């Protein structure tokens, strides 16, 4: 299952050289994952309030390949790599047109409101396969 999400680089996203500050790539891929979950029809607030669980990033392995710059139009591509009972592994790329600028492997887990590990809800696992 895959998803695409557009991002425009604003002045506030850049450093003095007009290059996207490295931490903002993580913000872009987070926005893309949030949009993807919403498009799947998963209500994260309901999941928190009714099931007492939330998604949390467990691990990110990121590669910064080429800089994005002020006013670039980017696309974040998200693809599910693996879904288990306890985790979701995703591959995310940021491209400017066809040029690959950034890529990351992201591991998402569910945790209870007290911070303990929790299983991914069955209905979510089914949607992601």
Automatic annotation (TrEMBL):
PANTHER family: 4-HYDROXYBENZOYL-COA THIOESTERASE FAMILY MEMBER, ACYL-COA THIOESTER HYDROLASE YBGC
InterPro entries the record matches: 4-hydroxybenzoyl-CoA_TE, HotDog_dom_sf, Tol-Pal_acyl-CoA_thioesterase, YbgC/YbaW
Protein name stated in the entry: Acyl-CoA thioester hydrolase
Keywords in alphabetical order: Hydrolase
Source organism, top-level taxon: Bacteria
GO molecular function: fatty acyl-CoA hydrolase activity
Family classification: Belongs to the 4-hydroxybenzoyl-CoA thioesterase family.
């Amino acid at each position: 299952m895959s998803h695409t999400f557009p991002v425009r680089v604003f002045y506030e996203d850049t450093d003095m050289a007009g290059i996207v500050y490295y931490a903002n790539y993580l913000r872009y891929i987070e926005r893309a994952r949030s949009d993807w979950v919403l498009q799947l029809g998963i209500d994260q607030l309901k999941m928190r309030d009714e099931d007492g669980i939330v998604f949390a990033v467990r691990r990110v392995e990121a590669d910064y390949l080429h800089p994005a710059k002020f006013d670039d139009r980017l696309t974040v591509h998200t693809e599910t790599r693996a879904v288990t009972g306890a985790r979701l592994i995703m591959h995310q790329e940021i491209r400017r047109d066809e040029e690959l600028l950034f890529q990351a492997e992201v591991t998402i887990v569910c945790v209870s409101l007290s911070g303990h590990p929790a299983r991914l809800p069955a209905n979510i696992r089914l949607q992601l396969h």
